[in-house]
Amino acid sequence: MKKSTIWFIAIVMGVCFLALILLEAGYIDDNVRMRRKQFDTSVGRALYVAVRNVELDETQRGLELGISTAPKDTAEIRRESLSDSLQKIPDAWTTQRRSNSFKEGEMATSDSPNGIRKMRRQLQGSYKSDYRREMLEEVVFDILNKASALPLKERLDFNKLDLYIKNALRNEGLNLKYHIRVETSDGEEVYRCNDYDTRGESQTYSATLFPNEKQTLTGNVYVHFPDMDRYIFASVRFIIPAVIFTFILLVIFCFTVYIIFRQKRLTEIRNDFINNMTHEFKTPISTISLASQMLSDQSVTKSPAMLKHLSGIISDETKRLRFQVEKILQISMFSRRGGAYKNKEFDMAHVVEDVVGTFRLKVESAGGSINCDISAQKSQVYGDEIHLTNVIFNLLDNAVKYKSEDRKLSLSVVVKNNGDKLHIEVKDNGIGIKKEDVKKIFDRFYRVHTGNRHDVKGFGLGLAYVKNVIDYHKGTIRAESHYGQGTRFIIELPAT
Fold this sequence. Notes:
Elements: H1 3-68, H2 72-98, H3 104-111, H4 115-124, H5 130-148, H6 152-155, H7 158-171, E1 179-184, E2 189-192, E3 205-209, E4 219-224, H8 228-233, H9 239-296, H10 304-337, E5 344-347, H11 348-365, E6 369-374, E7 380-383, H12 385-401, E8 410-418, E9 421-428, H13 435-438, H14 462-472, E10 476-482, E11 486-494
C-alpha cells in the first residue's frame, strides 16, 4: 500500500473520530444547559411558593393575635366581624401552599396584588354593610401594620420558613440538600442554618420576603445547593463512558497508524538489507568462482607463486563470507537471548590503546592520521573484553569507511574519567550524519540513504551490535554529528 493511501485513510478516520467526540461533547453541553435551566426554574417556583406561604402565615398569626389582645369593648365586634373571615384564611392559605404547578404568566398575575389587599377583598365580600366593612378595614390594617413594624427576626419563624422551602422543593421534584440564610434589606444577616456549608455558595438563589411592603420592611432569603453540580451532571453521566471509549479508540487508531508506518519502514529496511546482503555475498562468491576456474583451467600455466596467490584469494574471500555470516548470526543471537558474555575485570584503556595501534596502519594507508589521548586514572571495567574491543573497532572502521573525499582523514580517541564513569570518545571529520538520522543509526538494518557511498558495503548491523554491547554493560552511547563536518561517538561505562 502506498504511503499516500495510508495517510489519506488515517486523516479521514482521525477527522471522523474527532467529529464524533465533538458531537458527544456538544450533546453533553446542551443537556447540562437544559438541566440547569430547568433547575433554576424549579427553584424559582419553589421559593415563590415558600415566600407566599410565609406572608400568608404572618397574616393569619397577626389577625389571631389582634383578636386575642383586643379591649373588651371592641373584642366582641372584632370577633363577630372576623370570625367568618378567619375561617376562610386557612383554607386560602392551604390552597396557595399546595399549589405547585402554575405558569410564569400566572405567577406574575397572582403576585401583583399584595397580601393585605387580597385579604381585604376576601373579608369585604363577607359583609354587605358599609359600616361594618369600614370598621373591618380599620381593624385589619391596624393589626397588620403593627405586625409589619416588628423587626424581621421577630416576624419570621425560621423553622417554618425552612419547612416551607423543603416542601416546595419536594413538590418540584428536588430532593437535594440545601442551606439557607436570611438578611434584612440593608444586608444584615439575621439567620443562618446550623449546618451551613459554603460549597456551591457561588450559585445562590434568592427571593424577597414580604415583597409587597416598604423596602425597609422587606428581607431576602438565600438558598444554595452544595450538590447542585452533581445533580445536574447526573443526567448526562451515561454519555461520559461513550466519550472515554471514543477517545480510547482514537488513541488506539493513532497507535495502529504508527505501527503501520513503522512496519512499512521496517519492510523498506529489510529490502535494503537483502539487497546489501546479496551484494556483499556476490562479490566474494564471484572472486572464489573465478579463482576456482583458473585452478581448474588446464590451459593456464600454474606456477607455485600463482597457486599460492589463488589459494590466498580463496582463503581471504572465504573468511570474508564467514565474517559476514557470523555477523548476521551474532546480531540475531543478541535479539533473542542477549548474547553470550565472558565477564571479567580488565583495563579498558589498554584495550583502546591496542585497537588504535592496530588500526593506525589502515588509517595511514588511507592518507589520514589518528590521535589517542588517554588520561583516565580509573580505567578498570567489568565485562567482556572481546565484545568491548569489537565496539571500538567498529567505530573506527565506520570512521574510515565514511571519510570525506574533500579533506584528509583525521581521527581522535579520548579516554578519561567523568565522575564514576569511564568516558570514551571517538571523533572523526568525515561526511557526518543528518540530524533526522542520528537517532536511527543504532537500529538494526538501518543505513542512512543520503550518506551511503557506492564503495561502502554493509548490512546496517554494526552500530546495532555496538548499542547492544554497551547496553549489556549498563553503559550509554550517543552520537553527535554535523552533516558535512564529522561525527563524534561518546561512550560511558561504569568504572570499577
